[in-house]
Amino acid sequence: MFGGRCAGTCTACQAYTAADNRKPVFDNSLLQQLLDYNKNSLLQTTTTTTELYHSHKKKNSNKKNNNHNSNNSNSNNSNNNHSGNNNNNSSLLQRLLDLGSLPSQGEVSEILASQLGIWRRYPRQATVVLSGLARQKLPHLAIRVLVSMSRSSVEADAFHHNAVISACEKGGQWQLALRLLTNMTQLRVAPDEISYNSAISACEKGGQWKLAVSLLSRMSHVRVAANAITCSASISNCEKGGQWQLAYSLLSGMPAMRLVPNEFTCSAAISACQRAGQWQLGLSLLSCMFDLSSVAPDRITYSAAISALEAGGQWQLALQLLGRMPDLRLVPNEITFSAAISACEKGGQWQLALRLLGCMPEMGLVPNEFSYGAAISACGKGGQWQLAFKLLSDLPDKRLVVDQVSCNAAISACEKGSKWELALSLLRKMHDTRIARNKITCNAAISSCKAGSQWQLALSLLSSMPCSRLVPDTISCSAAISACEKGGHWKFALGLLSSMPDMRAVPDEISFNAAISACWKGYLYS
Prior knowledge:
Structural class: mainly alpha
Shape: elongated
Strand content: under 5%
Radius of gyration: 30 Å
Number of strands: 0
């Protein structure tokens, strides 16, 4: 696959060629329904559409000469006052920042009172301030500034709205971003590709992939051309929503929009394949990139592909990709190595995992918590509990945080090594150092008690899970039943089996087999 050029004839491409011709059905009413639903709450922060609209109509035609496209006639004055404007903008921005993230409209208007007249003549100065608020991730404050501009008849153009939408995107306020985008049309301010890109990115960060795709569909209806950034954000939305087919369809539809896929769009599509376990398609997309003269796989793309192979348990292919990177003058980073180590862990290759971990410092890379967590887990699965604990004890010396993931991996290693005392000791240390335990932690600890025939401790751990707001599952109960079976307590095993439905845990083959074995041992010894 890697030696030649992919012309759409490889197995993965043939399997999904039909996706090119399947245009996704977008429900544009979904966006309007959301906006209508949020109207009352959003208008408390934004201003009403009516107020903005009437303020907009009051502006006379002479003010049109003050927009961003007509500043050429005033360029000399702008150059003479450039230094002063920068100082004024910095001072004004700092005064606004001093108000905090949720100031009142009156507080903002008071600070802007002396500046609004200047903004009428030089609207670009307002853009500078709004962009500064966007960088600080202060959407509510940026909206207050926009409202003050409207009330003082300062014409707000697409540049101003884009800066505020960007603030909403950076501040995680996707609802506000959508509301502002709709307000632009009502105010006869035409949204451009930057407006839509920011709104789509806001939806991505808010996990609203359906809305993001609806926005992408709307762009064609309002004759706003999508660009590579738009497609990258939309594909990334599909990735986070687990919609790998739609991500692939968007990527393959880019040529029809006269857009050439770039590293970011391809990486997002490969990541979508990785999340869905479609490692074959992810590998095919990487291969197809070599056929595009305008784009070459980069480190991000390779990291995404290696992660896809890791999720698919293809450790050999993952190592092959890692080995090819130097030939392409690509330097692997911590993410790349962590994915490769994790691939070895899933493939039961603990020796290779440790070798990769040891190679990182030689390449000038500092292993992080993810790298060590994967290596510890690899040692645990390989029955190397001593090595797992050695790696765990090295973390403080490496100035790395001992977190839940690394502790879970070490406890699992103890379970496989039948070291229940060590597992429970680590569980106590997690409590003492305020490392939250999760269901994986408890299940591994209960399983270690099972291996040591410590049925009382297993039942105690099981009963303590609700105190940590954890609900026992089938694995938890099955491990506890097995512990009772090994301890020769068939009555407890049967009682726990019968109580599983009350805990919404579905008994499986392991649960029943352990209970049956417990009863059989009880019969033999009676």
